[in-house]
Amino acid sequence: MTRDLISSARKIVIKIGSNTLAKSDGSVNMAFMEGLAEQCTALMKAGKQFVLVSSGAQVAGLATLDRWARKKDIHYRQALCAIGQVELMDNWRNAFAKSGTHIGQLLLTGEDFKDDQRTLNIRNTLFTLVDEGVVPIINENDSVSYEEIKIGDNDNLSALTAILWSADLLILLSDIDGVYDKNPKEHPDAQLIEVVPDLHILKSTISIGSANSFGTGGMQTKLEAADKATAYGIPMLLTNGGRPRFLEALADGSQNGTVFLAKD
Ligand code: ADP
Questions:
Q1: Are strands 195-196 and 192-193 parallel, antiparallel or unpaired?
Q2: Out of 115, 141, 159, 226, which could bridge 260 as a Cys pair, Cβ 3.0 to 4.6 Å?
Q3: Ligand 1 pocket check for 257: Cβ under 6 Å
Q4: What DSSP element (H or E) covers 159?
Q5: Is 176 near ligand 1, meaning CB less than 6 Å away?
Q6: Residues 113-169 pLDDT 10s
Q7: Cβ distance 119 to 126 under 8 Å?
Q8: CA triplet 245, 250, 255: central angle to 5 degrees?
Q9: pTM strictly above 0.90
């Protein structure tokens, strides 16, 4: 299933969750970033195109300025994202540079997706970067965003991005293998659901537990992202980003996940 999905998709959006980017000690997982950069570059040479949606600005900020860890005030958190975003992109730039690939950054808020002129410009920028072999890396502009205009989580942001770029496939990377009938962190007997033909049926049959240490949206926002993407004919794959060479493993069918089938 995953092999067919990857082989038939040319334009792929990959969302990287904070749990995938951060190591358990709170530092940024450079080995993961370099591995992803290498695999994306190899697949780009084979004709695939990628747009990344990367969380992790807070994690990267805290790794730099741990004395702010306990400051919960909104101004500090937004300031921390301003610092962390630079660190995050510096890490991505170094990771991709090892494979000889350039990256570009787009920071967006919910308002950008509501305005026709802005969406057209974002779309054109994405197409230009990708056509030139550059990997765009998107994040929410957390330093300027506020409750009324923010998307709030990168699962939904990645679905909006996939729709805007007319992607063929959306991949969400997390620290679990996919959607289970109950939270696998709390229930060792939880069963992985490999294919979701109907999201409404899935929602009524599974139980959703809380998100992880660095995660924001948890399973709820992943299902919202699936709802958005599949309604626009884009299948979504939720899979584990923690396994070595996971992109290659997905492409050769040796790694699975949960596939949300696109609606006709
Ligand atoms: P990320 O930062 O990767 O987006 P989140 O922490 O936001 O990750 O969401 C993933 C977490 O959702 C998993 O680590 C898991 O503990 C939790 N979760 C809750 N319910 C479920 C479920 N039914 N199936 C899978 N994971 C679940």
A1: unpaired
A2: 226
A3: no
A4: helix 154-164
A5: yes
A6: 999 999 999 999 999 999 999 999 999 999 888 888 789 899 999 999 999 999 999
A7: no
A8: 85
A9: yes
Model pLDDT for residues 6-57, shown as the tens digit of each residue: 999 999 999 999 889 988 888 899 999 999 999 999 999 999 999 999 998 9
Q: Residue type for 243, please? A: R
Angle formed at CA 43 by CA 41 and CA 29, multiple of 5 degrees: 50
Sheet bearing 11-16, strands edge to edge: 103-108, 135-140, 49-54, 11-16, 169-174, 236-240, 258-260, 195-196
Contact (CB, 8 A) for 164 and 151: no
CA of 129 to the centre of ligand 1 (A): 32
Tokens of 165: 């770029």
Closest CA to 261 of 223, 230, 217: 230
Which atom of ligand 1 is least distant from the CA of 221?
Answer: 7
Amino acid at 84: G
CA of 117 to the centre of ligand 1 (A): 35
* Nearest atom within ligand 1 for CA of residue 217: 7
- What length is written for the chain? 264
Report, in this order, helix, strand and coil percent for the chain, each rounded to 5.
Answer: 45, 15, 35
